[in-house]
Amino acid sequence: MSKTELVEYVAANAGVSKAEAGRVVDATFAGIQEGLKKKGKVSIIGFGTFSAKKRAARDGINPLTKEPLHIAAKVVASFKAGSKLKDALN
Predict the structure, then answer these.
(1) Domain with 89 in it: what CATH number?
(2) What 3 state SS string does 57-86 have?
(3) What global pTM score does this model have?
(4) Which end of the chain is more exposed for a tag (fewer CB within 10 A), N or C?
């Protein structure tokens, strides 16, 4: 499902316009991003938990040239599905 399809789904199920649903979806994503930046974790009970994890610097190999290269440390987002989401998928 794309973001556009998600906005259409929210609009249809919440009885609001697509413009309003788009603002709600954007605000939700912004809230998740802000929560990850400030606290490193966003939990939505039953749905899942977003968390920010530090990935250490490491050495790698360029697959085209086979030359070694250094991959810098960075913070990445991860998601762990909650019980209700897991049950809905099975």
Answers:
(1) 4.10.520.10
(2) CEEEECCCCCCEEEECCEEEEEEEECHHHH
(3) 0.78
(4) C
